[in-house]
Amino acid sequence: MRIIKAASCLVIICIACAVIYMPNAQASKKKIYHVEIGSYITPYSAWGKAINTAILKIKKKTKGQVVVKHLHSGMLGSNDSMLEQVLHGGIQGAGIDTSTLANFIPEMNILEMPFLFRDNDEAHYLIDNVITPHLRKKMDAKGLVTSTIMEIGFMDFLMSVPIHTPADLKKVKIGSWESPVHIAFWKAQGGNPIPIPATEVFSAYARGMVNGGSIAPNAAIAWDKLFGGGLKRNELYLTKIAYTYHAGIIVFNKKFYDSLPSALRRDLTQGLEIMGRQLRKDLAAAEPETYRQLGKLGYNIIELTPEQKQAFIDNSQVVYDEFESIIGKEFLKEVLDAREAYRKGK
Q1: What DSSP letter does each residue of 80-103 carry, written as one string?
Q2: Secondary structure class of 179 (helix, strand, coil)
Q3: What's the pTM?
Q4: Among residues 23, 86, 155, 298, which one has the fewest Cβ atoms lying within 10 Å of its Cβ?
Q5: What pLDDT was estimated at residue 6?
Q6: Cβ neighbours of residue 249 under 8 Å, at least 6 residues apart?
Q7: Of residues 187 and 41, which shows the higher confidence score?
Q8: Residue 312: exposed, middle, or buried by beta-carbon count in 10 A (0-12, 13-18, 19+)?
């Protein structure tokens, strides 16, 4: 009987201990946050590779608590569709190009103004110190959080005929990015643009819907790997003009982002910002070789003289006049004044 009572007491004690320690055991299990990020970039591109590297680093940094999945190559639809999904919580984030975001936040048009930046260093200085702080406030009010501006690069002309003067653009069916600034730029040069979604640029060339447009050289290499087989590369002319800075911005649903513990928010944001800075360096270093690769593939590379480029710059002034009220007179002046001060300092 004593043995039975002793055994009963031991069972009761063990159960009590289990009840006491079970909450602590459950509490030790950390919650895992799954983050789906959509984009139209391909996994074979410099951007796709950079995101994949960042995903692994974020998972390691957060000890597996933040698991990011990249839904690439436009599998979730257009930029407009992905932005809607982010806003309504269907996905947690997306890499959206600035032309799409500009339809939602007019101040975003500043990033695509023609010939706003002289080179990469100037672009990065103004974006990091003047433009991004302003845009973050605007996006926050719209329910979005901006983690990083992901550089695509300066855009050149890609046409079926050589382009040396604005008048040459009248010979081309221009496929324009769906950006009011881009459309205004082509019109200012005397062209007749046809708006096309970013995901359909190369297929539009292949179908003959258009025979001219613009693209960043690094992006041209990436998309050529997917769609280049349908192009007659020797009949395409890439004019190096760097007329606009093209970027995509990784945005998150603000409600979701704010629900993350502060440490995980920091790790997620820092991981993507580190990726963005490294991507800038990688793209700049790769650009000379990129032009050589395009030449080897059969694209005709055209260099403009400073005088030839100036004609396009002069025509672009009307775009600034047109968008001053859309971007905001004070904000535009702030950016241009900062640019002038930066140039004087250089």
Answers
A1: HHHHHHHHTTSSSEEEEEHHHHHT
A2: coil
A3: 0.87
A4: 23
A5: 43
A6: 95, 96, 97, 98, 101, 146, 148, 149, 150
A7: 187
A8: buried
What is the enclosing helix (H) or strand (E) of 145?
strand 144-159
Give pLDDT tens digits for 66-114.
Answer: 999 999 988 999 889 999 999 999 999 999 999 889 989 999 999 999 9
Q: Which of 272, 140, 179, 163 is nearest to 212 (CA)?
A: 163
Residues 6+ apart with CB under 8 A from 67: 32, 33, 34, 35, 59
Query: What is the full DSSP assignment across 232-247?
Result: -GGG-EEEEEEEEEEE
| 137 Cα distance to chain centroid | 18
Confidence category of residue 203, pLDDT binned at 50, 70, 90? confident
The answer to whether residues 116 and 241 touch, using CB atoms and an 8 Å cutoff, is no
Domains for the chain: give ranges and CATH numbers.
31-345 (3.40.190.170)
Q: What is the pLDDT at residue 21?
A: 40
pLDDT of 7 higher than 70: no
How do beta strands 33-38 and 93-97 pair? parallel
Q: What is the dihedral of CA 61, 65, 70, 76, to 10 degrees?
A: -150
State residue 199's pLDDT score.
67
